[in-house]
Design goal:
Helix content is 41%, strand content 20%. It is an alpha+beta fold and 272 residues long. It has two domains: 36-130, no CATH class; 140-264, OB fold (Dihydrolipoamide Acetyltransferase, E2P), CATH 2.40.50.140. A hairpin with a 3-residue loop joins strand 1 and strand 2 (158-169). The longest helix is centred in the middle third of the chain and has 24 residues, at 107-130. The termini are far apart.
Length: 272
């Protein structure tokens, strides 16, 4: 009886919204402008109102990051490598224009966006100038390499190391490479910070396999790797010609911490 006396809720559909002109039974006629000039004036006034709202305080700040990214995209899209001085001059010119237009409500956002665009282009150009290094142009065999191991990667079928070269020599080798990435047999990769000597076969960085595909060469270039290949024979651990750099010491400590965590972690990969 108690359950039957409880109030039961009712469900009803949303009531449709009735336009004010529907009750009168007639639809108002569209108010078209009298002429083309009147239409253009109204459109310009409406656009001006929209722009005024969009350039309000704080509304254009997110677009600076977009403009900066577009500048970097322009760097990768152009066919020729821009000169660093030209990119710096463009950035200085747009920055000066931004300062001069700081009191103009419409010119200032445009100048600031152009400055952010130029900053992205200048940043990519400067980054390229900083990391510029020789790149292998043709495959070479029996290359004698000696250097410090900077990176060690354990993979399923083989290991891979990145070596900062101290000495390199080989037939038909014209470039003086700085860093190479080579594959070694599974379980034979030396620890980070070790000075090693070995023979290797080196190849030029791989270009995209199809138009628009992943560019391995660009990825290696920005990692300052001039060639890749595999080790021929055994890797020999040799005496260091000099003390390792601070960055190499830091990489050695980090790699040791990773190895210690990996050894103690219960969920290690099955292939390790």
């Amino acid at each position: 009886m108690v359950e039957q006396d409880r109030a039961r809720g009712t469900a009803e559909a949303w009531r449709p919204r009735i336009a004010p002109w529907a009750a009168a039974g007639c639809r108002p006629a569209l108010a078209w402008p009298d002429g083309l000039s009147d239409f253009a004036g109204r459109a310009a006034e409406r656009v001006r109102a929209w722009v005024t709202v969009e350039v309000g305080p704080g509304r254009l700040v997110p677009w600076l990051a977009i403009a900066f990214g577009c500048g970097i995209a322009i760097y990768f899209a152009i066919d020729r490598e821009p000169a660093p001085w030209a990119a710096a001059l463009l950035l200085a010119a747009t920055a000066a224009a931004t300062v001069l237009a700081r009191r103009r409500p419409f010119a200032f956002p445009l100048a600031l966006g152009a400055a952010a665009l130029a900053a992205g282009l200048a940043t990519a150009t400067t980054k390229r100038a900083i990391i510029a290094h020789p790149v292998l142009s043709a495959p070479v065999w029996n290359v004698d390499i000696a250097g410090f191991v900077e990176i060690r990667e354990e993979r399923e079928r083989s290991d891979r190391i990145v070596v900062r070269i101290e000495r390199i020599a080989g037939p038909r080798l014209d470039e003086t490479l700085e860093r190479v990435r080579v594959s070694v047999r599974k379980g034979t990769a030396p620890a980070v910070g070790t000075f090693v000597e070995f023979k290797a076969r080196l190849s030029a960085p791989l270009e995209p396999l199809r138009p628009g595909g992943y560019d391995f060469a660009r990825d290696m270039y920005f990692n300052r790797i001039g060639a890749s290949g595999f080790v021929l024979g055994r890797i020999r651990v040799a005496e260091m010609p000099h003390a390792p750099s601070l960055w190499l010491r830091y990489a050695t400590v980090v790699d040791g911490m990773r190895e210690a965590i990996d050894q103690r972690h219960p969920c290690r990969f099955a292939w390790r």
